[in-house]
Amino acid sequence: MKKSFLTRIIVAGIATIAFSGFTIAQQPGVRRTELQRFDLSAPGREVIQSRIDFDPGTSFGKHSHPGEEIIYVLEGILEYEIEGKPPVTLKAGEVLFVPAGVVHAARNVGTTRGSELATYVVQKGKPLLVMTK
């Protein structure tokens, strides 16, 4: 009986962690699709590439990453706020570098879908993003 109860607690904990990770990575009107993930030759580092799609007028709140983010705007017009810098607006074909641990946010300021290719070079085993207030 105790083993069954313990098993249920562990499964519930894993489900809670998985669900929490999902809600952090997804916000209404924003879809994040992981494209690839590989270990790097630098010990403890990995590269992750994701496509992030923003519906018109939507935003992804303030957050940071445990490593660098390299952004390539695929379509639309996206505005980025990076802590300590004035906002920057980018259109398809333009790029942005976000240093490790720097708080930033993104918003689709266009009237059509906005999309970016985000490449992260991050510490392996840490959450890809941490939401901030």
Automatic annotation (TrEMBL):
Database matches in CDD domains: cupin_BLL4011-like
InterPro entries associated with the record: Cupin_2, RmlC-like_jellyroll, RmlC_Cupin_sf
Domain of life: Bacteria
One Pfam family it belongs to: Cupin_2
Coiled-coil boundaries: none
Residues in Cupin type-2 domain copies: 52-113
Protein name, UniProt field: Cupin
Organism: Flavihumibacter solisilvae
